[in-house]
Amino acid sequence: MFLPVLLWLVVFHYIPLAISIPLVFKEYDQGEGLFNSPWSGWDNFKWLFTGGGAGSSAFLNALRNTCVLGLLNLTIGYIVPVIFALIVSQVRFKKYRRTCQMISYLPNFVAAVVIVQIMQNLLAQNGALTTFMSNVFGMKKQDWVNVNQPGFWFWYIAFGTWQAFGYGSITYISAISNIDGTLYEAASIDGANRWQMMWRITIPCIMPMVIMLWMLQIGLVFKVGMDKTYLLYNASSNAEYCDTLFSYTMRMTMGGDLGLATASSLFQSIVGMALMVIANWLSRKAAGVSMF
C-alpha cells in the first residue's frame, strides 16, 4: 500500500531535488539548458547575502521577515489552538460544543485568495476593522495591508491564526477526550474544581503531544507565508515587511533566475532540517518525547 506513495515521493520530490541542486552552482541560461549552463561556484549565495555588492539584499530582508513571522506563529499562532481546545473541553453541552467546533473549522477551508481579499477589505484605509481600531483605540487610519510598518506582521499573524486555530485544535480536543475519566472522578471526590482539574490533569496529559507538534512546527518555520505573502506582496508599498523567503523564491523563479531561486530554496531546506534536529534533541531532553 505504501508503494504508490513512495513512487510519488521519488518522482515529484527526490528526483527534482537531485536535478535542481546543480542549479545552485550554475549561472543558468535558458538557451544553454541545465547541463550546458556555465558553473558559477558560490556566486548565487554571495548575491543572496550581499545583494550583489549593492549594500543591501532583498533576500536578507525576506529572511528577517520570515524569522519574525515564524516566531510569532510559534507563539501566538500555536498557543491559540491549545487554549481553544482547553476551553471547548470545558463546555458541558455537547451540541453547543460541536457547533463551536464546526464554526471554528470553517475558515481553514477558505482559499488563501479569499483570506487575502478579506484582509484587504477589512484593513483598507476606510475598512471596517481599520475604522473600528481608529475610533476605539485611536490607531492611525491607514491601509494596514499596503504599509511598510511592523504592524503588518501583527495583522498577518492575526488573520492566519483566525484561519487555522479551529482546525489546529482538532488534535488537542481528541487527546483531551481520550484522557482516562477516572482521573477526573478521583479529583472531583478530593474536592478539586474544574480549573484545578484542567491544570493538574488535562494539561499534563496532553503536554507530550503539544511539545511534539510544536517541535514539528519548528521545522516548518521557514515555510511561513507560503501563500498569503506572495499574494499580498507589493513592491511599491509593503515589500519591506511583507516579503518572505517563499515569496522571494517564487519571484526569482517566475523571473527566470533559477540559480538564485534554487539557492534560496536550498538554504531554507538546510536551515529547516537543522532546526528540526535541534528541536527534536531539546524535546527528548526536556520532555522525553521525540520523533527520532
Layout of SSEs?
Layout: H1 3-20, H2 33-36, H3 43-50, H4 58-89, H5 94-105, H6 112-122, H7 128-137, H8 151-168, H9 170-177, H10 181-189, H11 194-219, H12 228-232, H13 239-242, H14 245-254, H15 258-286
Helix pairs in contact: 3-15, 4-8, 4-9, 4-11, 4-14, 5-8, 11-15, 14-15
* Number of H/I helices: 15
| Separation, N- and C-terminal Cα atoms | 23 Å
**Which segments are poorly predicted (pLDDT under 50) over 5 or more consecutive residues?**
none
Query: Helix-strand pattern, N to C?
Result: HHHHHHHHHHHHHHH
For the largest beta-sheet, the strand count, sense and barrel status come to: none
What name does the CATH topology carry?
MetI-like fold
Radius of gyration: 23 Å
The chain-level structural class is mainly alpha
Q: What's the total count of β strands?
A: 0
Percent in helix: 55-70%
User: According to CATH, what is the class?
Assistant: Mainly Alpha
CATH homologous group name: MetI-like
**Percentage of residues in strands:** under 5%
Mean pLDDT value = 86
Shape: globular
Question: Could you say how many structural domains there are in total?
Answer: 1
What would you call the quaternary organization? single chain
What is the CATH architecture term? Orthogonal Bundle
